[in-house]
Amino acid sequence: MLAMFKSIPTHMDYKGQKLAEQIFQGIILVSAVIGFVYGLFIQQFGWTVYIMLAGFTVSCLLTLPPWPMYRKNPLSWQPAVPETSGEIRDKPQESQSQKKKKHK
């Protein structure tokens, strides 16, 4: 059963994140305007809140799961550089002239 959950993709690329954010904000904005106008028209603030919650739920269902439309532009990573055991990767040494200069 655990293998089934590991097969579900959980990543989103950067363009997909931007798209998801735009969709989320658009749905929230549209539902807020519709909810405000409808609540004002029927003079019931509760309907404004219900419509906002419905918009929030729809936007969460559309943007939180990593749908395939959010994974169309994967990053191409550079290959890993093999590390050799004899090589020491310390900071570069300062030149002797820089070490001798001291401020008084």
Structural summary, described in words:
This protein has 104 residues and is mainly α. It is 56% helix and 0% strand. It contains four helices and no strands. The protein has helices spanning 2-6, 14-42, 45-63, 96-100. Helix 2 (14-42) packs antiparallel against helix 3.
Topology:
Layout: H1 2-6, H2 14-42, H3 45-63, H4 96-100
Helix pairs in contact: 2-3
Q: How is the biggest beta sheet arranged?
A: none
Beta-strand level of the residues, as a percent range?
A: under 5%
Approximate shape: elongated
Number of H/I helices: 4
What's a quick, concise take on this entry?
The protein is mostly helical. It is built from four helices and no strands. It has helices at about 1-5, 15-40, 45-65, 95-100.
Descriptors for this entry?
104 residues, mainly alpha, single chain, 4 helices
